[in-house]
Fold these 3 entries.
Entry 1:
Amino acid sequence: MSAQRSVFFVSDGTGLTAESLGQSMITQFDEVSFNRITIPFVNSTEKANAAVAEIREASQRDGQRPIVFSTLVDSELRSIIHSVDALLLDFFEIFIGPLERELGAKSNHRVGRSHSASNTITYDARMEAVNYTMAHDDGITEKNLGEAEVILVGVSRSGKTPTSLYMALQFGIKAANYPLIPEDIGQMKLPPALQPFKRKIFGLTIMPERLRRIREERRPGSKYAALDNCRFEVTSAEALMRSHGIPILNSTDKSIEEISTTILHQAHLVRRVF
């Protein structure tokens, strides 16, 4: 493996866009070790100069040029960052220029648009989705289930809660989740509260061995975490979901991002990107 390379994500906002775009690129290089540094809210010449100083320090420490992913909008701040000796990947320069030429229009050059709360309507919608999802976590309440855009079901610890919260926060989706408990599985019936909303249900499953490891951390040595019990619950829950025509996704080797995107696509849900 080669020496570690410093990678900077420089932004005039939260840095989430720079991180997302940059991370998607550097993950293609398995044999290279990266030291990731995010520098958000670079919205003044002082902060831009401070960022340049930090990048130069990393260059001297590492003995090689850092890599810089920048989503800065302000031309003066961008010119300051461009002065540093680094591999600079400027997303504004790469994408906005060609878009302006193609659309025959100038961009507004507004700072921090992609992850700000400046759009009150969409921000409020996202917060409403998060509040709804938290109130309908793990079958806490059956009230207003009809408002859910998707209802995730599966055995305990199959990934329902983190997926629901990610979908709410990232995409503004009202996502309820409901556990399939042994009583439901044994009768091969959906819980009565879910039956009117079968078309909204999406099932998550998981490999029994992985489920055992997760449950063992929570309740070590219990029947709940026993491999035989995990196998029974998973197999029976999958049979129950198949009998009701519920789509099933195995979450074992997938990230929350992959799980959420798959559900959005297969359930034909509308993304609300903020």
Entry 2:
Amino acid sequence: MENIVDNVGDFILFYGLKVLIALAIFIIGKAIAKWLRGVVSTLLQKKEMDVAIQHFVSALVYYALITFVVIAALGQLGIHTASFVAVIGAAGLAVGLALQGSLANFAAGVLILIFKPYRVGDFVEIAGVAGTVTSVLVFTTELNTGDNKRIIIPNGQAMGGTITNYSTNDTRRVDLVMGIGYGDDIDKAKKVLEDIVAADDRILKDPAPTIAVVELADSSVNFVVRPWVNKADYWGVYFGLTEAVKKRFDQEGISIPFPQSDVHMHQVASNDS
């Protein structure tokens, strides 16, 4: 009887000590994981990283450490953790293969949030779609188009193609092509275009606008009109100049030719039998 009691006591002492050590490992490890999560979050805040990136990276650090802590605690209890780690790895691989498209969008979203090729409020062209960015999420980017349609673009497509951001710089250049007839006076037309551009207060003086003959086309002599404007005035100047040029050319008797084709008909004499 005494041997049984001694054996039970030794068993409790031995495994009780292991349980206490395992609990200590878990409690201390969890505290360290929380502390490191706070440190990582603070560092990311100082670098002005996006809030979503801060939460993601700090949570990733925390749960990765917690996983190691749990494995260490189970190992202290005598549980074979090698098979446990193998199961976790296999499960992770299976999930990764099943969600490879989503993971690609996720990775692209992280890169977008870190490098910031565009921000909320920017007018951009992504994956062939132009619109104003309303939301940048980890998996998708949301745009509002000019006709008020909501477009959701997977971040994998956004990062996999060309991104055109029209809002990055404070100024933009308006590019117009105006054609006149071959019988019109080039100098007169150029002077009219210069007067129209000079009369618009929204057009910047520096850089100076460019007005020049760019092409002798099939049906017209083409001018390029390239004034610089503040980005907020781009479309107003674009539409305004187009209308002003048409009205002024009409007043000055300058023609705006349209594509045309000459058809020559030849009559073939028939042979009467």
Entry 3:
Amino acid sequence: MKLEDIDNQVKEKPLTKEESKKQFLRLTGELDIKHSFNFDEAWEIGQEIRKRNEFREKITELEKEGYDKNIWMDEEQLHKLNPVKNSFADGCYIREIFNPAGELLVTKIHKKEHPFFLMKGEMSVLTEDGIKHLKAPHQGITKPGTKRIIYAHTDCVFITVHATEETDVAKIEEQVIAKDFNDSLELGSKVKDITFTGSLASYNWHTKSDVDLHILLDFSEFASDRALVKDFLDLKRAQWNERHDIFIYGHEVEMYFQDINEEHYANGGTCKRG
């Protein structure tokens, strides 16, 4: 069975929580699998991911339908009714925007975590976590991948602060605004090195040898729970390898994520990412 078959089964005939738990326990015993989280934690994570994805699909559809029916303002109208003040400090871009009372708008998708401040007014904000009513003065943190629907009950002044050395607003927007939800996914860790290994890199390679590309990351830059990070990246690696058939001169290529602090003896060389 391929991963896309599993995806289709989850969409069309998802297992109940009880059915999933029985399967989880059975396969754990049969395969002697070790876990870094229990079933209830895994189920809760899955439900949160499903809820987030459903919200993202619906808000994207709503935004598209609004533009198709001329419900939303175009960029020129938006800037005219929502004047923006740009200012800069040492390593910071401060963006202040005015939202008039009675305005309903869909925000851009944010790439990076940053603070926001409601300095004046009241607004209702719909996110994947539900509806929140904000009243000035209020402050909060915007997470990567956030897209909101905002209704201004009164005239509002909203400020966001972004860490950047750039002073060109157009370039800053490229840094902080995502084209879509996939574009908003950033690792939060830079690639430290790439190792070319596998049987093809050894002295006893043969025509059936494959290529293993180990992408070295510092797992501690993601979260303190390295075991959880490893499980997540192993899953993403398996999905990627399943969905991409990559060959170099007839030799299969498989990708792996490796913690830079983990010992690994490669048969081949390494190439440093600049």
